[in-house]
């Protein structure tokens, strides 16, 4: 882990997620403004457009982004956002003409995820199987996470058109249950899905996610060893030191951006087990919302301090 990092002094307002287009241009979502901004390689941020229908409040707003695995052909950018009645996923074509990018009209592909002032989840990511995985929150409803028919407190698995992915364990969109608030999804080199999750005041979690796995909320948190629930692989006893959002995995290391903890955590992965977390940049740059692999093989860290926010660029490891 490099101890020096470059700051990209973009004038951002609560950036939540970033993706890189094939030409190296980044697209960043801003939670409260509902703006999508582009950052050409080595350039400044430019507003690409405002996502219509976003109702930002509390922890809700324009949240996760994911690029279609077939982007070169279909030009689809996927977005998870809080709308007036729900949390939902839409996709929009990013058109390019003469080097300038523009947005078509967004198309909702999945609606009805419960919303609340907090616990909205919001991370979306395409898996190695080509399906779209979605981290939702319990939306402050404690009856949601344990109900396999409810969409709150889940990891969902969808087709690119928004249908339940084939092979899902309950015949609907649900992939795993018993989650509190999932804002980080990543796969290791063996194709295992890992997810970060906020604990209540104790027990932030890094989980290894299996289909139909029940991760305990609201009955239990952490790793209590109850046979009916999946124990977390890493438990942070104090949410003041972690509160993990974005997650990335490179090689056998997981990288987690911490909000309250104001640091980057790395966790060594050993197959299906996880080792002891190591803290980096503690309270140097404030709250970190997302960790994104760059096309160069380094990382972008998105800060969430509203003063304004910037991107911390970590160069590739030598
Ligand atoms: Ca749990």
UniProtKB/TrEMBL annotation:
Segments forming domain Glucose/Sorbosone dehydrogenase: 12-308
According to the record, the residues making up region (Disordered) are: 138-170
What would be one Pfam family of this protein? GSDH
UniProt superkingdom: Bacteria
- InterPro entries referenced in this protein's UniProt entry, alphabetically: 6-blade_b-propeller_TolB-like (IPR011042), Glc/Sorbosone_DH (IPR012938), Quinoprot_gluc/sorb_DH_b-prop (IPR011041)
Name used for this protein in its record = PQQ-dependent sugar dehydrogenase
Taxonomically, what lineage is the organism?
A: Bacteria, Bacillati, Actinomycetota, Actinomycetes, Micrococcales
């Amino acid at each position: 882990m490099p101890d020096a990092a470059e700051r990209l002094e973009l004038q951002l307002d609560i950036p939540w997620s970033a993706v890189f287009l094939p030409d190296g241009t980044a697209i960043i979502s801003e939670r409260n403004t509902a703006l999508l901004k582009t950052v050409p390689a080595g350039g400044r941020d430019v507003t690409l457009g405002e996502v219509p229908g976003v109702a930002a409040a509390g922890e809700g707003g324009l949240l996760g982004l994911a690029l279609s695995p077939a982007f070169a052909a279909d030009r689809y950018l996927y977005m998870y956002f809080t709308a007036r009645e729900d949390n939902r996923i839409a996709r929009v074509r990013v058109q390019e003409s003469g080097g300038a990018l523009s947005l078509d009209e967004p198309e909702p592909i999945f609606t009805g995820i419960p919303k609340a002032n907090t616990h909205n989840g919001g991370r979306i990511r395409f898996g190695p199987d080509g399906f779209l995985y979605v981290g939702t929150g319990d939306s402050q409803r404690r009856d949601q996470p344990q109900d396999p028919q409810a969409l709150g407190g889940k990891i969902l698995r969808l087709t690119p058109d928004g249908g339940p992915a084939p092979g899902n364990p309950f015949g609907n969109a649900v992939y795993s249950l018993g989650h509190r608030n999932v804002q980080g999804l990543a796969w290791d080199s063996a194709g295992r899905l890992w997810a970060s999750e906020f604990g209540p005041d104790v027990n932030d979690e890094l989980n290894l996610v299996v289909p139909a796995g029940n991760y305990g909320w609201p009955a239990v948190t952490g790793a209590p060893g109850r046979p009916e629930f999946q124990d977390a692989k890493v438990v942070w006893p104090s949410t003041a030191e972690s509160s993990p959002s974005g997650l990335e995995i490179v090689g056998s290391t997981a990288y987690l951006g911490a909000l309250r903890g104001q640091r980057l955590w790395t966790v060594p992965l050993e197959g299906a087990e996880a080792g002891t977390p190591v803290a980096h940049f503690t309270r140097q740059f404030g709250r970190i919302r997302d960790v994104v692999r760059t096309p160069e093989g380094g990382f972008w860290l998105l800060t969430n301090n509203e003063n304004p926010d910037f991107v911390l660029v970590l160069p590739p490891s030598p």
